[in-house]
Amino acid sequence: MKVAKFGGSSVANAEQLIKVGNIIKSDPKRKFIVVSAPGKRFAGDAKMTDMLIQLGEAFHNDDDYELYLSAVMARFSEIIEGLRVNDDIYAEIETGIKMALAAKGSMESKMDAIKATGEDSSAKILSAYLNSVGLSAYYINPQEAGIIVSDEPGNARILPESFDKIYSLHNEEGILVIPGFFGYTKDGKLATFSRGGSDITGSIIAAGVKAEMYENFTDVDSVYTVNPNIVSHPKEITTLTYKEMRELSYAGFSVFHDEALIPAFREKIPVCIKNTNNPDAPGTLIVAEKETSEKCVVGIASDTGFCSLYVSKFLMNREVGFGRKLLNIFEDEGISFEHAPSGIDDMSVIFRDKKFTPEKEKVVVDRIKEELKVDTVSIHRDLAVIMVVGEGLVNTIGVAQKATTAFSNANVNIEMINQGSSEVSMMFGIQAADLNDAIQSLYTSFFS
Ligand code: ASP
């Protein structure tokens, strides 16, 4: 049997949900269905999850929230009417949202309860619709399904005991429709995964029921070798490994949540990225191992919003514990690091600059000066990271040379190079302003 997950654009309106119904009908193996909340219907439209966040914030700040509630209900009403399902479901959804608004707990937990109603309502609507077109479908709540998560609102992680419970679902009759994006803690508190986390639910269910395939339906025909917003009509990737996908989704390949690979990977379940708007296209298959092809680089990922902190100290290489003490300061300040390239007398720590406020920067820099007695410390913001990814990198000669030539052809200065120990990727740090030129040149070198 297969697990099929439908993302926000696939459930954005009635027309899309009708396509979803046809996809489910066309393959009786599609027994477990996971859904996102309604996404954007057109460029510039609001995602349901963002609308619910606005609603929750207005409600809990004692602002006038009625307007936001009506906007949310209007979107659901449009979908319900378009599908011509029994409109009792409208009242059920409204009650669910009102109950979530009244939820108790910390602010983060209360917001999680509200955010989760997007996926929850989507699952209820889809299950009603599938029944109306003659399929036996059942809505099932993540708690009943056995999705037990850590108590980290907005960033929950699956707990290992979930999988046995989920396995018992494989005997259930009919099609089970499960809302994505959230689970319940051991003591019954709702908690959501990080944003985009319905992919994670799909993968958990696929691993739990030991599905033969996890299909992830989105709005593109495949995963592309490079960001299509930078290079127009880039080549498609037909097959890639979990490791390659992990490296690509880390830096900007947003088709699939990076945390979602883990459960499928552990059970070696192939993941297929497919297009709801073109379900006959073969899509991109993510597998444990693939045949070595002549292409050693499968894709080039890139992302902006990085920051680097550089420290130098003469004879740093002889100072036992220097790296640990530096990283300890990051740990104390709650900043996770992404890369840490080092030289004999210097070291850089690369991290996302989202949470590195000017106040945090001052604390970190002062502590480094004070506790590590460094010669220099400097911060570089507005960095972009480019990852050249492929399992073939490990035994191909000349990839770095090809990449650096591409940077020099584009007249782009490389600020940092790091070849991960896994040798699945090569990382380059450059100024964010140079990103498009660099990517275009790399694409020409590796794929044209
Ligand atoms: N609706 C959630 C979000 O927008 C989760 C998801 O769509 O996967 O982040």
The proportion of strand residues reads 15-25%
Bound chemical compounds: aspartic acid
Count all strands and give the number: 17
> What Rg, in angstroms, do the CA atoms define?
24 Å
Span of the ends, CA to CA: 39 Å
Class based on secondary structure composition and strand pairing: alpha/beta
Main sheet: strands, sense, barrel: 8 strands, mixed
CATH superfamily of the largest domain: Acetylglutamate kinase-like
Name the helicity range. 25-40%
Low-confidence stretches: none
Q: What do the pLDDT scores average to? A: 94
Given this structure, which CATH class of the largest domain is correct?
Answer: Alpha Beta
- What CATH architecture label of the largest domain applies? 3-Layer(aba) Sandwich
How would the global form be characterised?
globular
- What is the total domain count? 2
Instruction: Quickly count the helices.
Output: 14
What is the topology, as strand order, of the major beta sheet? Answer: 3-4-2-1-7-11-12-10
Question: How does this structure look, described?
Answer:
The longest helix has 26 residues, at 107-132. Strands 3-4-2-1-7-11-12-10 form an 8-stranded mixed β-sheet, sandwiched between helices. The protein folds into 2 domains: 2-287, 3-Layer(aba) Sandwich (Carbamate kinase); 299-447, VC0802-like, CATH 3.30.2130. Helix 1 links the parallel strand 1 (2-6) and strand 2. Helix 3 packs parallel to helix 5. The mean pLDDT is 94. It has helices at residues 14-26, 48-60, 66-83, 88-101, 107-132, 142-145, 162-167, 198-209, 242-250, 261-266, 322-332, 358-372, 399-409, 435-447, and strands at 2-6, 30-35, 137-139, 175-179, 182-184, 190-192, 213-218, 223-224, 236-237, 239-241, 271-275, 284-287, 299-312, 346-352, 376-389, 416-419, 425-431. The chain contains 14 helices and 17 strands. It has 448 residues and is α/β, with parallel strands linked by helices. Aspartic acid binds at residues 8, 36-37, 47, 49, 118, 180-181, 195-199.
